[in-house]
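Q: Trace token order:
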Amino acid sequence: MARFREIDFRPTPMGDLILRERWDPVAQQDLLEIKLGDEFLMSSLFTVAEIALGHLATAECEGTELDVVVGGLGLGCTALAVLEEPRVRNLVVIDALPEVIQWHRDHLIPAGADLTADARCRLVHGDFFAGLRADGELDPEAPGRLWDAVVVDIDHTPSHHLHPSHADLYDSTGLARVANRLHPGGVFALWSDDPPDDHFMETLAATFPEVRAEVVTFANPLQGGVAANTVYLARSAR
């Protein structure tokens, strides 16, 4: 049995992008993985927290016709979780790597079949961070749109970024940009690989009147025991 199968390889300005399938003898299953340079962006073995991110974000939302934007596509787990909420009428998923979007459109990533078939969902190539800086225009097809939820799963943590240009999302100015693109009482949800960060929580609380951190646990068969990620949730002023 082949241990590795490279499904696609693309050089990008951010590094070599690889989609591969790997048999893991410890987990005793085939894993789908995305690597960018030396960074592991996603593994199908660890998706519990990414799914929880989408569920928690939409559960916090009020109203019956929700407009949601997700920054970061990856294996599509968060986007699929958002679409499980029947109140969602529009989902825009923004990713800086057009190759990842194409993998979904070509159904090389399994979630792509459902995402591209759902009329509520659009996959958009763009820089989520630059969109926030540009007067908050995250969706060029709907300039000025306010969102019921802004959901982000791009960087590893608020202090460990895939690119230095992402850093300004996590300070008070960047978080204010997010708040300005939300409806009153709208939700900002952020995934992190680390335990809750007190400093970041303080920064969130300086911008959003309601904030909390949800710790999501899951089995880690590679290291044994239980692992944990964090989902930060913040609500804008009503």
